[in-house]
Structures are given as structure tokens and as C-alpha cells.
Amino acid sequence: MDCIIDFLSDIKQKDLRRLAQNQSECYEDAIELYKELFISNFSQIKDACSDEKCDIKSKCNELREIILGIENAEIIDFFDKMKLVYINWIDAKIKDSLEVFTDIMNQYELWCFYDTDIKKEIFFKGRIEKNILTRWEMFHIPFNKRYLIKNQRYSLTGQPIIYLGKSIVDIIHELDISDENIGDLKISSIRIKEDLKVYDLRNNIYDLLNKTEFLEVIGGEGIEKNYKQTFFKILLASICSFERKKEHKDYTFCEEYVIPQILAQTLKNKEYDGIIYFSTKKFEGVSFENTKENISLTNKTKYKENVALFTNFNKDHVYDEVLYSKLDISSPIDLTKSQDFNINHLDETCKKIEFTKNQKEINDSQVIVTIFKREFEGIKINDSKYIDKDMGKMHIYHLYCILNKILCKSSEVVINERNNS
Fold first, then answer.
1. 114 — phi, psi (to 5°)?
2. Which domain holds residue 225?
3. What domain of life is recorded for the organism (predicted)?
């Protein structure tokens, strides 16, 4: 590999993490080997990455120069400090661990990343349950039943956090759905109605390429600072994304979750509302086909985006009612409810909304459909289009329900305006 952008991508870093993990007996050894693999590959790319071999050199020149100018010693220091965070934690030096981690975040100025488009997104929550579920039951596990909460990547045992996925294929992988229990899978769509401060832990190296022209306006130290911050944020994201070993699945402690949980705790203390990140699952069989518009590299990662939303304890209620009021949670449904739906249903509903001439709702509906087509129309699962599979049809059905809510709201506004005129 001779491209710094490809090297820093989530796909390549996942390969390096797996290689390090497979050759290590414990997490601290995996971090050490990952560091060595990263430095070795990074050093080789410094010599190989050049304009002559680059397909995106018009966007990449300054980014490549700044990132390849980062000294190996600085990268090694980052890895070593992260390993120290973990070692201090497992050695019961909790205060020392948190202090080292906070120092890292301050040193590399990593607090500033947050998702500015979270309200435009539509997420999903899944549960395995034979019985009918309510919207509240698709929220978080109640505070008075926290004994049900297992150790999870961004939450300690007993700590309720709401985990959401950007696609149905993501939900199915995260819940380890099989042919035996897929009939009991219930899924709700969730829209964020109010601004939430969600930390962006995604590996967004491709997004950075798209923002190059804007960053060039900043110029000088501003652009160099932004590139370096993103570089070390990618390292942070990668260290937080080691897969949990299958052999350890039934055990309480998970070494791969320690640093992500420390990140979540420090972010909550800084009044963040959650984290958006890439799933660590193996999405075997996922591929992309060429559509009328080539799928951008950024959109090829959308299907595996997850969000973890923090909850705040409420002594008077078993749920975080404040957070609930900021979310629009749909009634959960199973796969049998959505088998006859396709993209045409979305387009037809958008036309009905356009007929109301309510521009705000028209724009809202168009954004929903445009984003869906851009991010999911070209995805294939085992050589079949995502939108033609049951999981894709459920995705479409949830969007169809959302669009019909918009249609009702838009029509109501029109009727009220007529009555008042």
C-alpha cells in the first residue's frame, strides 16, 4: 500500500488491529503490536506516497504533506500513553488512569469533534422479544432494572445507555441475529428532535478530503492543526475499536471495552450527550455496486455507524424522561410488516408532500429520501441489493412511516392556514 489516505481508512486499520489481536495474548500486548505495525507501515508509506501514484492528488497534497510530517516519536508516545491508561485501570489506579487519558485528550486537542448533522439522521433500535413492545421498552433499560445491563463497549455494567444503528443490517449484526430468532426481532426508528452534543469518533479521513477546500481558506496553522487533530482522533477511534474476542464473550470483564468506557465517562463529564462511531462487527457479504452517481468513499461507511446516547439518572422516574422528549421513537415492528415496500413508496409520498406546498416539510422529506438513496441504494448483501432484501424493505417502511407523519403535519398546516384566511 502506498497511499496515506487508504492506509488511515477504517478498513486498513481494522486489518492491522485484527493482526495485532490474533498474535497477542492480552490487550496491552495487542496495543503494543498494533503500534509496531502502524509505525512500520506508516514509515514505508512516507517513502511510497507521492503525486505520481495518487488519483486524488488535487485534494491530497497538503493533507499528505502535513500527516506524513508527523514524527514517529509523537505517534509512539500516543500509543504508549494509551497503553498506560489501560494498565493503570486494570491495576486499580483509577484516578491515575483518568488523569493520563484526560492529558492525552488535552495534549492532542481531541475534545472538539462532534456530529453537526445528527438531527438529519435516522437511526434504528432493535430488540429480540416475542411479545409486543411499547416505545418506552425500545428506549433504555429502566433504572430500577439496571441489573439486566451487561458490560458494553461504551457503558459499564449496570449503566443504561441507548445504542442505535444507522441501518437494519447493522442492527442485525450488532444483535447477532440468526435464522432462529430473526422472527422475534422488533425494530423502531429513532429521530433526534433536538440538538444533542454527540462526540464524533468515526474514522472520517475521507470526510477530511471533502473539506480540504474549506480548510484551505483557514490556511496556515489552522489547516495543519485540523489535519493533525484528525490523525490522532483516528488513532483514538481505532484503539477504541478492537473487537471483543469470541472466546471471552460469556465472561464479565472485557479488556477491549476499558478505554472506550473511559472515553464515555470523560465525555459525559464534559456534558456530551453521546458518541457516534463505527461498528466493530464483521460485515461479511457487504459490497457496493456502481449507481448513476458513484458512491463516495464516505457513504460506503454509513451502514455501519452506531450511536451511544448517555442517560441521566432520574430519582422520580425509571427512565430518563428529558432524553426521551428529545427523541421521536416509532412503534416497534417485525419483518413481516414491511415485505411489500420499495423506494417507489418513498417517492410517491414525497410527491404528496410537495402538493401541500409547505416548503419546510417538503425540504425535510427530500433530505430523508436523498440521504437514503445516496447511502443505501448501492449496497449489496451477498450479491442482492439491500433495498430488495427484507432488512432493506423494513428500512424503507420506517422511512415511509416517517414521511407519512410529515405529510399529515404538512396537510394540517395547510388546512389551518385556509381556515384562518
1. -150, 155
2. 4-113+198-270
3. Bacteria
Q: Which residue has the cell 507501515?
A: 41
Q: Indicate the DSSP class of residue 246.
A: G
Whether 365 and 224 map to the same domain: the answer is: no
- Contact of 51 with 3, CB cutoff 8 Å: no
Model confidence at 84: pLDDT above 60: yes
Count CB-CB contacts under 10 A for residue 147: 8
CA distance linking residue 325 with residue 193, whole number of Å = 8
Q: Exposed, middle or buried: residue 78 (CB in 10 Å: 0-12, 13-18, 19+)?
A: buried
Count of domains for the chain: 2
Do 107 and 8 reside in the same domain of the chain?
yes
- Residue pair 262/251 in contact by the 8 Å Cβ criterion: no
At residue 74, φ and ψ (nearest 5 deg) are -70, -35
What confidence tens digit (pLDDT) does each residue in 337-368 have? 887 899 999 999 999 999 998 999 999 999 99
Output the pLDDT for position 236.
98
Same domain, 214 and 343: no
The pLDDT tens digits for 195-237 are 899 999 999 887 776 665 555 555 555 677 888 999 999 999 9
Residue that finishes a domain, picked among 211, 235, 270: 270
Residue 222 maps to a domain: yes
Give the chain's mean pLDDT: 89
**Which parts of 273-385 are beta strand (E)?**
274-278, 286-288, 305-310, 327-329, 379-381, 384-385
- Grid cell of 49 as nine digits: 506516497
Given this model, what pLDDT does residue 336 score?
84
Task: Report d(CA 96, CA 262) in Å as an integer.
Answer: 12
* Residue 192, in any domain of the structure: no
